[in-house]
Specification:
Elements lengths: L19 H5 L7 H11 L12 E5 L5 E6 L2 H13 L5 E8 L2 E10 L16 H15 L4
Antiparallel strand pairs: 1-2, 2-4, 3-4
Length: 145
C-alpha cells in the first residue's frame, strides 16, 4: 500500500480513509445541540460530538482480516468484550488518546465475520406467544429459570 507521498506503508501504518461527508452527512446544517457539543470542546474537557463518534469497517480482497476503527464508546465496549471472550479471533490494535482519555480504538478480526442483512426479519408472534415469552423473561429476571 502506498501513502500520498508515495512511500511504502506497512500494515502497521494502515489508515482507513476518512470520509466524513459520505458516511456521516456532515454537510447538513448543524442543530443547536450539535453546536453546544462543539462548545464543550472549547471549555477544556475533551468530548466528541455524535458525528465524530464514528465506526468504520474496512477490508480488502487480498487479506482474510477486516479492521474496525471506532470512536464510539458503545462500540469500543462491545469490541473490548469480544476481544476478552475470543482473543484468538479478535485482536486489539492501536489506541488513540487525547489528553489522557481514549478517543478511538482499532481492532482486527476475520473478514468472514462481516455480513450484511438483506432485510429485517421480524417474527410474526401471536398474542399467546408474546405472553409466554414475557412470562419466561419475567421469571428469568426474578431468578427462577
Amino acid at each position: 500500500m502506498r501513502g500520498i507521498s508515495g512511500q511504502n506503508l506497512g500494515r502497521e501504518n494502515f489508515q482507513i480513509p476518512f470520509l466524513p461527508v459520505l458516511l456521516t452527512g456532515r454537510n447538513k446544517k448543524r442543530t443547536e445541540s450539535e453546536q453546544r457539543e462543539t462548545e464543550v470542546l472549547s471549555m477544556g474537557k475533551y468530548h466528541q460530538s455524535k458525528y465524530e463518534q464514528e465506526v468504520v469497517i474496512g477490508f480488502n480482497v487480498a487479506e482474510g482480516t477486516a479492521e474496525i476503527y471506532t470512536a464510539d464508546p458503545v462500540w469500543i465496549r462491545k469490541m473490548d468484550k469480544l476481544v476478552q471472550r475470543n482473543p484468538e479471533q479478535f485482536k486489539p490494535g492501536k489506541v488513540e488518546t487525547y489528553q489522557g482519555e481514549i478517543a478511538a480504538k482499532r481492532y482486527t478480526f476475520p473478514k468472514r465475520f462481516v455480513t450484511i442483512r438483506s432485510k429485517d426479519v421480524r417474527p410474526n408472534l401471536t398474542d399467546e406467544q408474546r405472553a409466554e415469552i414475557a412470562a419466561r423473561l419475567s421469571k428469568g429476571r426474578q431468578g427462577g429459570v
